[in-house]
Amino acid sequence: MISTDGAVLPRTLAAALAVRADDPVRTVVAGGTDLMVGVNAGRLRPSSWLSLRRVPELQRIERHGSSLFVGACVTFARIERELVDTAPALAAAARTVGSVQIRNAATIGGNLSTASPAGDSLPVLACYHAEVEVASVRGTRIVPIGEFLVGPKRTDLGADELVVGVHLRRTTGEQAFAKVGPRAAMVIARCSLAARVDRTTGDAGVGIGAVAPCALAVPAAAEILASGGSVDDFVAAVVSAAAPIDDLRAPAAYRHHALAVLARRMHGWLQ
User: Fold this and answer.
1) What is the Cα–Cα distance from 107 to 109, expressed in whole angstroms?
2) For residues 122 and 94, is the Cβ–Cβ distance under 8 A?
3) Taking all residues of the chain, what is their mean pLDDT, rounded to a whole number?
């Protein structure tokens, strides 16, 4: 373990969990792409840090049969490169995260822990029915994504816990991700939508982002996709699950309209 200038850089997950248990208020940093915005703006002044970037257990991408594990410190650049065939909707979302420099630093664990309603990977994880692995010195637990995300920038993560990674079930069939923002790239989503469908097995999933307190799955829309239902029914199911608010990025009415447009397009893409 390395310690310097208030920062601790453990080399194992066990060491990181011990530091977390000993000092739960120590600021945890992986990519730091969200955290450093607050630091640079003068809103945050952490006095001590726990850096996870040198913990090998958090850097893993593992494939076992029908399951896929993505470690918390896997960057979006790696997801974009390495999961384009295994989890294409997640790879597509990764390509929309910031700039190349941001994607080389930002991690999926950071996206989960920050729990922004507009987090790009989160509607995809909801669409995949992902499970989040969290750990502390007390042990490990597996939390469904819908239970892990509990509100805007709020999660089920305990004060002494760290996100270890996310478990996905590898699926076949068509997949897609799209979001709407004020420009084509390097933008925070005003709404986002992920969907997948395998018409051979009848397996489907739909997730929405930036239009509710947290990203969430839309089972009714997934059922319509799986059964070959109409585009109008699909759009209605997606939009009815949304509960957007007016904020600085967009009014609620615009988000509803944009989400309907995305849903109509995505229904066509997945045919």
Assistant:
1) 5
2) no
3) 92
Which pTM does this prediction carry? 0.93
Q: Are strands 49-51 and 27-29 parallel, antiparallel or unpaired?
A: parallel
239: its two tokens:
């939009």
Please count the CA atoms within 13 angstroms of the CA of 51 that sit on its side-chain side.
16
Please tell me the predicted confidence (pLDDT) of residue 2.
60
Q: Which of 212, 209, 204 is nearest to 151 (CA)?
A: 212
**Distance between CA atoms of residues 263 and 54, nearest Å:** 40
DSSP letter assigned to residue 240: H
Task: Measure the CA–CA gap between 167 and 5, rounded to whole angstroms.
Answer: 35
The answer to whether 252 and 242 have CB atoms below 8 angstroms apart is no
Q: Is the distance from CB of 71 to CB of 102 less than 8 angstroms?
A: no
Please name which of 54, 60, 51, 99 lies closest in space to residue 78, comparing C-alpha atoms: 60
Q: Is 81 helix (H, G, I), strand (E, B) or coil?
A: helix
Which structural domains are found in the chain, ordered by start? 2-169 (3.30.465.10), 174-269 (3.30.390.50)
